[in-house]
Design a protein that fits this description.
Layout (H helix, E strand, L loop, with lengths): L2 H7 L3 H12 L3 H10 L7 E7 L5 H14 L4 E7 L7 H9 L1 H4 L4 E7 L11 H10 L4 E7 L4 H5 L5 E6 L7 H6 L1 H4 L2 E4 L7 H14 L10 E3 L8 H17 L2 H32 L1 H12 L4 H17 L7
Parallel strand pairs: 1-4, 1-5, 2-3, 2-4, 5-6, 6-7
Helix pairs in contact: 1-2, 1-3, 2-3, 2-7, 4-12, 13-14, 14-15
The protein binds guanosine-5'-triphosphate (GTP) and magnesium ion.
Magnesium ion (MG) binds next to helix 4 and helix 5.
Amino acid sequence: MLDISKRLLDGDKRALSQSISLLERNDPDGILVMKDVYTSLKGIYCVGITGSPGVGKSTITSKLTEIFRDHSFSVAVLAVDPTSPYTGGAILGDRIRMNKHYEDPGVFIRSMATRGRLGGLPRMMNGVIRLLDAAGQDVVLVETVGVGQTGVDVSNVVDTVVVTLVPEGGDSIQTFKAGLMEIADIYLVNKADRPGAQRMIHAIDNYLSTSISNREWTVPLLSGKAVTGEGMDKLYDAIKLHYEFMIETGLLDKRRRERRLKEASGIMEEYFSKLTNQLINNDPKLKSLLSMVEDGQVEPYSSAIELLNGLSYSLEWGGNSPP
Ligand SMILES: Nc1nc2c(ncn2[C@@H]2O[C@H](COP(=O)(O)OP(=O)(O)OP(=O)(O)O)[C@@H](O)[C@H]2O)c(=O)[nH]1
Ligand SMILES: [Mg+2]
């Protein structure tokens, strides 16, 4: 076992930060750590807080962190920054907001970049969550902007999805329908102090009563004012209820099984796609065929098959051209 794995299992926060970085950098040691700690995992509970920019996700996350701490749970916060970590204004704001938690040894905060895939969750998210588990964190709160794929991605990573809406977004309910609404385990209308809050709540209520749902879980519709903390206890209760539901129905286990499979096949897909590019780039014959495709001289479909045949040669011959 690597020394860093031992320190991680002892709950050393520096080892935790370092091992997350290893994973982010694709360092082979990161994989060794993952292997070292795997049998010691307890199954950390993951809650996603998602919604459009500025709906109050960080404020909610901060309040929830407080409540989880009051219940003696250790908390990890993963803030998924749509641009880059530590530079964007939003992340600076989050840092100030989360300041009091930085002093608390029971709280671990990390921001993560999406690496240009706007709206995408970092692909190593499941791995990072496992590292947090290894370090002994009880709960992880994942804050992500719910645009494009992110909202959909987040349900592949967390156990409970909180979709946050604000009164101002009343008209955009149509757009939410496409993906975000389906993945919600809990709806929260934040900024209930703003005009139009009641109308928003009615609109969602309407949506909920007209949409056909065969899920056993009845998605609760909550409202709150995260800045004052109002409604945040109810949010905590709803998360706890959903957690219990997930365990009792066996859904937690089912989702996690599916997630592990998806994770492994995602890693393989990524590996094969990298390998394909590498092989093509190192093989002058394949490269020239591709540039003919690019120029429109040869038909792409049959050329792709020819490329694949060429690749199997490259694999067999260790990357060298066949004799
Ligand atoms: N009026 C009102 N303002 C709120 C409430 N909750 C949060 N805010 C304010 O809304 C602004 C955005 O809050 P954040 O928590 O940063 O929102 P966010 O969703 O994390 O924003 P991004 O991470 O940039 O997407 C801040 O100025 C908050 O103080 C609320 O209940 N009522
Ligand atoms: Mg935020």
